[in-house]
Amino acid sequence: MVEFALLTPLLIFFVFVTITFAVIGQAELAVSQLAYSAARYASVNPTLSASAIESYIKAGNLGSPSITADGGALLTVNVQQASGFGEPVTVTISYDLSSNVLVSSMTTLFASLGMPVTFPTTVTATETTMSE
């Protein structure tokens, strides 16, 4: 029973670190998919302005609800629209992870233990497609 009492805090710590990495990985995957979908949307709608595409993205019409929640308040979208047919369209999406309670509390926990480990606070993805 003593062994269980000694190992349980360590096991719980590893479980929370694993969950934190899963949250960060999910955010990275969601941002990457959103950047691809947004670049595709911008390439097939060349007449739309960059601000119209940004509004469409932040409204949650593309991408995971976990990152487009609250009207995309934690998203930064940069759209470089094509100048003509066959020209590149580049979309860069950044997602702010610093407001995620689990990620910020794990960074604080590591700092309080004297470990210089920080988790990412921003996840960014860039996609380029050709205008159609």
Question: Could you give a quick summary of the protein structure above?
Answer:
The chain has helices at residues 2-44, 50-58, 65-72, 101-112, and strands at residues 75-80, 88-96, 122-130.
Q: How would you explain this protein's 3D organization?
A:
By secondary structure, the protein is an alpha+beta fold. It has one domain. It contains four helices and three strands. The chain has helices at residues 2-44, 50-58, 65-72, 101-112; strands at 75-80, 88-96, 122-130. Strands 1-2-3 form a three-stranded antiparallel β-sheet, covered by helices on one side. Strand 1 and strand 2 form a beta hairpin. The longest helix is centred in the first third of the chain and has 43 residues, at 2-44. It is elongated. The protein starts with a helix and ends with a strand. The relative contact order is 0.19.
What profile does the largest beta sheet have?
Answer: 3 strands, antiparallel
Separation of the first and last Cα atoms: 67 Å
Question: Which consecutive residue ranges, at least 5 long each, have pLDDT under 50?
Answer: none
- Count up the helices: 4
Give the overall pLDDT as a whole number. Answer: 88
Order of helices and strands: HHHEEHE
Task: Output the keywords.
132 residues, alpha+beta, three-stranded antiparallel β-sheet, 4 helices, elongated
